[in-house]
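Memo to structure team: turn this sequence into structure tokens by end of day. - J.P.
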Amino acid sequence: MGKPKIGISSCLLGQPVRYDGGHRKDQHLLEKLGSLVLWQPVCPETECGLPTPREPMRLEQGVGLLRIKGIDSGTDHTDMLSAWTEARISGLEDLCGFIFKARSPSCAPGGADIFDNDGVLISTGPGLFARAFMKRFPDVPVIDEESLHEPDELGNFIARARNLMS
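Reply from structure team:
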């Protein structure tokens, strides 16, 4: 049996794509899974055309619509990120799993802060790209890197990913 192809937030592999120009390389994750999987790095924010470094962003719940905006400027990046997501997601059909960056407004599979238009925290949920990925591929296992530090979660994720290969 071959290795499952796993999508991963690029910053977790050490790519300097975060808003501050840094990364969040997760050595534990790479050591535990690196020899078991084939990585497919994805960074929605840089791949959609946003620069690095860039203004930090947050999710805002408007009237029935979730938006992703610059924290200081209020610049709305939703349309650009959504258009990129629609085009990019169709090229990810062969993934057997996805490891997203926790709390990211674009990548978190859950737990990303959602604010109202006045900047008041009102809830949490998935990031914009992760939300679209999970909707399009409901049977593909997704998780964030923090959850994978739990031994049971790691084993469960790999088992579910391998099951998609058969």
